[in-house]
Amino acid sequence: MAANKSDTLANRIVNHILRATASTAPTTVYAALFTVAPTKTTFGTEVSGGSYARVDCGATGTAFDAPTTGATANSAPIAFPTASASWGLVVACAIVDHITDATAANILYFGNLTASKTVDNGDTVTFATGALTVAET
Questions:
Q1: What's the pTM?
Q2: Cα dist from 47 to 3, 22, 69, 85, whole Å
Q3: Which contiguous run of DSSP H or E holds residue 58?
Q4: Domain range list for the chain
Q5: How do residues 79-120 score in pLDDT, each as one tens digit?
């Protein structure tokens, strides 16, 4: 996934680097799936129901490999729960900073999947190690 930074993250970076405003990294980041892709300013439509849950990618600092030329990838597999009902057509993924609450979560990075996937009852969605890439566009 070619990743876009959310406005929230972009503002945190600018404030941290150019305005000397402290910014604390989240303790854990989570992967989320969407049927309507997020944008820089909107949350999009996250998958819901059918046993869907965001996936803990690991503690910040260990969830993704060290960047090379502005890109990184997940350092361990990211496996979502098996769908117990249809999740619909999944078109995008995002890295967020909260496990459950869409109103408390900040999207950090987001992007469209290389290929959209219809997720039906009994299907699983897994990003193998190195498959979920975050590269600035």
A1: 0.89
A2: 19, 33, 32, 11
A3: strand 55-59
A4: 2-66+75-120
A5: 999 999 999 999 999 999 988 766 678 889 999 999 999 999
